[in-house]
Amino acid sequence: MKHPQYTRYALRPELPTGAQPVAEWPPDTAVTGAAPVRPEAFDDWSGAAAYVPTPDGQELDYNHPAAVAAILALQPAGWQEEDGGRTLVFWLEDGAEARPEVAAGLRRLGGFGRLEVARERPGWEDAWRRFHKPHVIGRLYVRPPWYPVRDDLLDIAVEAGLAFGTGGHASTRECLELIQTIEPASLLDLGSGSGVVSFAALRLGFAPVTGIDIDPVAVHAAAGNAAMNGLAPTFLVGDATDPAYPLPEAEVVVANIALRPILRLAERWRPAGRAGTAPPAELLLSGLLVEQAEEALAAFPAFSETTRADDGTWLTLHLTRRA
Asked: Distance between CA atoms of 17 and 26, rounded to whole angstroms?
């Protein structure tokens, strides 16, 4: 069986965050014989490692969100950030650039800055896979699918793809740690990404489990991961912070998003919020920076803090609804 060959693209955006790309491929685009990728030590194989505060200081985003969106539109075989998010690396199968829609997407990416192109050496996929390691988080074993199952732990396989959430990022790990301290019940996973929290909830006995993400690419990836795990949560595309969105009720809600959407979410459970949306009994708020704790807590006066987890930078709060 002939294995596909891949081309590696490395984009170093030069325009300010949010700037619009130009229509034409810039004349200084480099085609080089770059060596195979050497991933950084930070083990987050979701492509979501380098978040930075946006100008409003409340929401988090990639260093170059418009460039990331343009890369994801190409549906690459894989992608990651390097140099703290200053370089975006992605892979396409050889020959993909001949398709008109891919060629147009590469021209758009060239407008962000210098785009280097190199044919990958045979076997690079194996080196890339060796970098992506499984994570033991309490009773859970979150692994890439090429690692074997461990019989002594609850197994979750997550493909390294286009959706955030593989157990490598601190906010995901903290959610997976704290969910194990909550009595299983119905659960709503907001910002579900790859679906890893939903899968963990099902393995731990929560039911029914519903995941909601604003990104249809993430929901598609989560559905594929669900099939691989033999699990059947419900995944929906939508903005859970929008008062017009019909948010399902659940006893437990996990919201691994950022401060600004968390504050919008809080409005749904205030007395003046959307009629018919009852607040959960247990709430995990994640995707927060440690310095945002008090602002997040103040937005949920009907809840009291049970515990928190943080790694010095990223924070997850466990709140319980007051009697």
From this structure: 18
How would residue 125 be classed by pLDDT, with cut points 50, 70 and 90?
low
- Token readout for 130 is 């060796």
Cβ atoms 180, 201 nearer than 8 A: no
Name which of 134, 136, 237, 150 is nearest 195 in CA terms: 237
Structural domains of the chain sorted by starting position, each given as residue range(s) with its CATH number in brackets: 6-128 (no CATH), 164-321 (3.40.50.150)
Which alpha helices (H) appear in the chain, and where do they start and end?
A: 65-73, 100-110, 124-131, 170-179, 196-204, 216-229, 259-267, 293-298
pTM of the predicted structure, to 2 decimals: 0.68
Residue 20 carries which side chain, given as an amino acid letter?
A: Q
pLDDT attached to residue 92: 86
The CA distance from 28 to 34, in Å, is 16
Helix (H) or strand (E) segment spanning residue 184: none
Mean of pLDDT values over 256-265: 91
SS3 95: coil
- Tracing tokens 């690396």 back to the chain, one arrives at 89
Report H helices in 44-123: 65-73, 100-110
Instruction: Return the H-helix or E-strand segment holding 82.
Output: strand 78-82
State how far the Cα of 224 lies from the Cα of 12, in Å rounded to an integer: 31
| Cα distances (angstroms) measured from residue 307 to each of 181, 195, 207 | 10, 24, 23
Side chain identity, residue 270: R
- Please state whether 212 falls in left (phi above 0), alpha (psi between -120 and 50) or beta: beta
Rounded to 5, what percent of the chain is helix, strand, coil?
25, 25, 45
- The mean per-residue pLDDT over the stretch 207-229 comes to 90
Buried/exposed 64-94: b ≥16 CB within 10 Å, e otherwise? bebbbebbbebebbbbbbbeebebbbbbbee
DSSP 209: E
Reference 139, options 183, 177, 97; nearest CA is: 177
Q: What are phi and psi of 97, to 5 degrees?
A: -65, -15
Residue 162 has a CB neighbour count (10 Å cut-off) of: 20
